[in-house]
From TrEMBL:
Protein name: Aminotransferase class III-fold pyridoxal phosphate-dependent enzyme
Keyword Transferase on entry: yes
Family annotation (SUPFAM superfamilies): PLP-dependent transferases (SSF53383)
Presence of the UniProt keyword Transferase in the record: yes
């Protein structure tokens, strides 16, 4: 490794010279934070300053930083068997697939990849091929929601419903349609939350019918839109979506990339609702992001349709060289053990509720239009005016985030600059956060918002 030591100026210079960052534009005035170490919920940068990571990286370090056990699990596996392709098999993948069934509480077969995007790509191909296998040859289309995010690769980006991430890369993959999400905060006046959620679900059925039932392969959605602004549906919405999918022979793919592994206060986000997905995709919290790993869980009876090898094209013709790497699987198993042993799934709900109730007084603040929670995911929607609900200006949103950072707290925001929705502040700290960590989040954020804003 280059010995940059702790010379932050040199590191920043080299960073700007050689590294292309995700999303964040190049800015000399606002250089990136260069992290050097982390422990628990706290990250230390190259200057020795400490920050509470109120976003768990990118909603992913569920068990917190600095877990020696995870490093050891990967190290031991690397010494024993560092790699073997899953065109054949190995023990850590088998053990993890079994463990995931336990976590899912149902009968699924697991396909491993490396990222959330790839897990969704696999799901789309499985859904299309499944429909072919059962003789439904025209069923190739997908329905997703505006404001939802499903990844950065062409297929998963096609499913994404955020214009700002897409418009420079279009045309994307064909066959992806979008409907509005159940954003109850912005429901029409005079409509109850239940009526509005039913109406939103109905747009899915209407789209299926208008497009031609026999052309529809699957619906994909997060149980709760997280990165798109913490949009929490009413129970009735997902019940109805499930009914519609079943009625029309359309598969239901639930994207648990953020909501999975305790983030929602249950094992998986959809466990908070009555849905039984046909396919579940997962990544991030699966390894708490210590190593890349993702999974596409497919209901057993769907998998059975892939066993027809009569023309040698029955099986799933999809290879992922690194997917299910033995060290990543061994680490994931240990990660799940930590979540279980430390009751972190339950803790997520307790911490989420604590932050949410501490924040509830902020509803009186002139900028706060709505506060929403799903487990340990909290969204605060900032508005210019509480009656019109016009989203607060991006400069305000960014200013609050920067001020929190200057006081040692990292928080996030949703984004769709093109559609004008970039006004939801997000909080998703590690599930292992201590009571003091949570108090720091609450106190710091309140002091910022009640200070100069
Ligand atoms: N799905 C959801 C809901 C996500 O939030 C993300 C990433 O943030 C993805 C999929 C894509 O995951 P990855 O960045 O690992 O490809």
């Amino acid at each position: 490794m280059l010995n940059l030591g702790t010379d932050s100026e040199l590191a920043i210079k080299k960073d700007q010279q050689y590294l292309w960052h995700n999303i964040t534009p190049y800015s000399e005035a606002n250089p990136p934070m260069i992290a050097t170490s982390a422990s628990g919920s706290w990250v230390t940068d190259i200057n020795g300053d400490k920050f509470l990571d109120g976003m768990s990286g990118l909603w992913c370090v569920n068990v917190g930083y600095g877990r020696k056990e995870l490093a050891e699990a990967a190290y031991n596996q690397l010494l024993t068997l560092p790699y073997f392709p899953l065109t054949q098999s190995h023990l850590p993948a088998i053990a993890l697939a079994e463990k995931l069934n336990e976590w899912l509480g149902d009968d699924y077969v697991i396909f491993f990849s490396n990222s959330g995007s790839e897990a969704n790509e696999a799901a789309f191909k499985m859904a299309r091929q499944y429909q072919q296998q059962i003789g439904q040859h025209y069923r190739h289309k997908f329905i997703a929601r505006y404001r939802g995010y499903h990844g950065s690769t062409l297929g998963s980006l096609s499913a994404t419903g955020q214009a700002q991430r897409k418009f420079k890369y279009e045309p994307l993959a064909g066959g992806f349609l979008h409907v509005a999400p159940p954003d109850s905060y912005r429901r029409p006046a005079g409509m109850t939350v239940e009526e509005f959620n039913l109406q939103c679900a109905q747009t899915i059925e209407d789209t299926i019918v208008w497009e031609g039932v026999e052309t529809m392969a699957a619906v994909i959605m997060e149980p709760v839109i997280t990165g798109g602004g913490v949009i929490v549906p009413h129970q009735i919405y997902l019940d109805r979506v499930q009914e519609i999918c079943t009625k029309h022979g359309v598969l239901l793919i639930i994207d648990e990339v953020i909501c999975g592994f305790g983030r929602s206060g249950r094992n998986f986000g959809h466990h908070n609702y009555n849905v039984k997905p046909d396919i579940v995709t997962m990544a991030k919290g699966l390894t708490s992001a210590y190593l890349p790993l993702s999974a596409t869980a497919v209901r057993k009876d769907i998998y059975e349709a892939f066993k027809d090898n009569s023309d040698d094209y029955g099986h799933f013709r999809h290879v992922n060289t690194f997917g299910g790497n033995p060290a990543a699987c061994a680490l994931a198993l240990r990660n799940l053990e930590i979540l279980e042993q430390e009751n972190l799934v339950e803790r997520a709900d307790i911490l989420g509720e604590r932050i949410y109730s501490e924040f509830s007084e902020l509803l009186d603040h002139k900028l706060v239009g709505d506060i929403r929670r799903f487990g340990l995911v909290i969204g605060i929607e900032l508005v210019e005016d509480k009656v019109s609900k016009k989203p607060a200006d991006l400069s305000i949103v960014k200013g609050i985030i920067a001020e929190c950072k200057s006081k040692g707290l990292i928080i996030g925001k949703n984004g769709d600059t093109v559609a004008g929705f970039n006004n939801v502040l997000t909080f998703a700290p590690p599930l292992s956060s201590t009571d003091e960590d949570v108090q720091f989040i609450v106190d710091t954020f309140k002091s910022v918002l009640n200070g100069s804003w």
